[in-house]
Design brief:
Layout (H helix, E strand, L loop, with lengths): L1 E3 L17 E3 L6 H6 L2 E3 L9 E4 L2 E5 L7 H10 L4 E6 L7 H15 L6 H9 L5 E7 L2 E10 L3 E9 L8 H15 L4 E6 L14 E4 L4 E2 L2 H10 L2
Parallel strand pairs: 9-10
Antiparallel strand pairs: 1-2, 2-4, 3-4, 5-10, 5-11, 6-7, 7-8, 8-9, 11-12
Helix pairs in contact: 2-5
Length: 232
Amino acid sequence: MKKIPAPKLDFNTYVARPETHWIEREPFDSFTSIYGSGYLPYSGTKGLQNIFYSARSARVALNDFELTSENRRIAKKFDGQFIKQRIPLKEFRITPEFIDFFVSYFMQRHGPCVMPRERLELILSCGLVSTVVTYAKDSRPIGYVLEVEDADMAHYWYSAYDLSLIRQSLGLWLMGDCVSDAKERGLAHYYLGTVYGEKALYKTNFEPLEWWDGKGWNSDIKILKEISRAEN
């Protein structure tokens, strides 16, 4: 990992924090070592590849992972309802319908600047995504998850799903399904992205959760909740 100066950013898709550090992935660097050092991939600016930033990342320690009561409640709604496939990106057919599904989800859920078509195409071509997890019902797509995977870890990077099911917590179910799947595959850690603000605290539904505090992995969820709630 090579430390680099802060790059010129597209602030429509990312807001840097004063404490943010940046690295460039070198050929011998594994995702396991980069993620394990508290870094996540940056994908907000065209022309920047293999750039990672330090963040308040969260991960599930899969060896001891078990469904919480909330996880089990949501699982009852969706388990067994969908046809699921894990498809390596190099074998996945990127159709106009897939692009439209993803872009439309982000536009309706987060606004037009977060995931325009150009950014999605950048993410799919940057060499980080290993797998597309697909969920369908009656031949109709219900959701997609883009994962980054290494020998003993994976990262739930981006997802898009049918917003008609949002009030039934489909998004939380998708994440839980991928966490459970990762444990079944024998991985050590499953990364859930950042935890900033109260809106990200749904990730604390997964236990045992660890978060990067700037120096190491911290398992004190009470502190994480206090810090995140204070940011609202």
